Amino acid sequence: MGAVRIAIFVVAGVAAIALAFLVQGMLSPKIKPAAVVAAAPVVKPMAQVLVAKTDLPIGRRITSADLTWQAWPVEALNASFITDGSAPAPEPKGAEKVVDKAKKAANTVVMGDGPMQALEGALVKEPLLANEPITARKVIRAGQTGYMAVVLQPGMRAVAIPVTAETGAGGFILPGDRVDVLQAHQADGDKKGITTELLMSNLRVLAIDQTTEAPADSKSTIGAVATLEVPAADTEVLARGKAQGEMILALRSYADVGGPSGRGGPGARSEDTVRIVRAGATTEVSVP
Predict the structure, then answer these.
(1) Does the global pTM surpass 0.85?
(2) I want to staple 228 with a disulfide (CB 3.0 to 4.6 A). Which of 148, 154, 203, 265 is the partner?
(3) Per-residue pLDDT tens for 179-190?
(4) Helical (H) or strand (E) element with 194
């Protein structure tokens, strides 16, 4: 075989191989590079939790202006939080009793048309910070254990005295009113003389019997016991008055509730005199 013929065979072989690769490339599907898809951000479910709008001190009477709703991650909800009901708090495993107790405590607070309306008039039992969730442990309503201790102002004491319709202004004294406490008793050494004393002035009525709030649409209430808010240093005045006899509550006008509370007061007579009524005649006698 001549050299020319061998060269033709070599060229033909190379051309056949090149043609085979070309045809394979044309017939094979073209694979496009995978597009890079950005992962969508994970949206965490949120609930609305009732929180304090501002700092609320102990004894503060709550109004709707003190509360607001705040978005809260569902995974961080506590069973004692008060929510709008759109996402209930999860129950942790192994603590069903604790969760059930917390829910029942929260349910005692959430009554009425809505949580915010139900808390109207409740008192702050423990300090609440701004944006802190409201829980049953930190607020208290009338009739609940410990309510009276929260109602009392610092330095004051609750003292109960017996009353009747006659000694309690005909039943027109209601919780929240202000009263003076008077006492009329027989003058020492004089069977006909009557001494009248103003024992205490401008005291706040905390309760009539166990009623701590004036009944709706009620103009009067008849009770057997009136609980009064008395300065700590003056509690013995009422204790001594109860031992001496019947005491009378005089209702004060709403326009006359200012001034200090305690023994005597702006309308009291001098501590060195007593008023004696004898046979229709009134005299003031100085005492040591």
Answers:
(1) no
(2) 203
(3) 999 988 776 666
(4) strand 194-208
